[in-house]
Amino acid sequence: MHRQLLHLSVPAIAYMVVTLTGYFGKTEAQEIVEALKWFPLNFLFMAIPYVVWLGLAKAFRAPSTVAHLGFVGAHGALFTIGAIIYTADRGHLGNAWFLYIPIATVLMLIAVAIGYAAVRVVERKRA
Q: For residue 51, what are the domain limits?
């Protein structure tokens, strides 16, 4: 459970790092306060794939490796979209976040499929 909570902290850490490194402008105190004001809503949005996967992994009793790889897929989506936005024209930043949840879903499914296949192979070798 502790590892899963660590995974859930990644969106919050990513948001704070981007905020404090001056992505939103000149890193003036007023802009940091403005970014912190929006933190709860941004965190909830960025955490959607993580929370959904946590619920699915618990409901279907996913093996630890498979559960971990689902979170890794969500991390991949978060950092991919973050990199696209960070390097893109600042006038069109909001549009890229429309891709976040679909990309997270695809990357999580790929990671989980690979993990599940690997677990099955290891189980067969043990039998």
A: 2-126
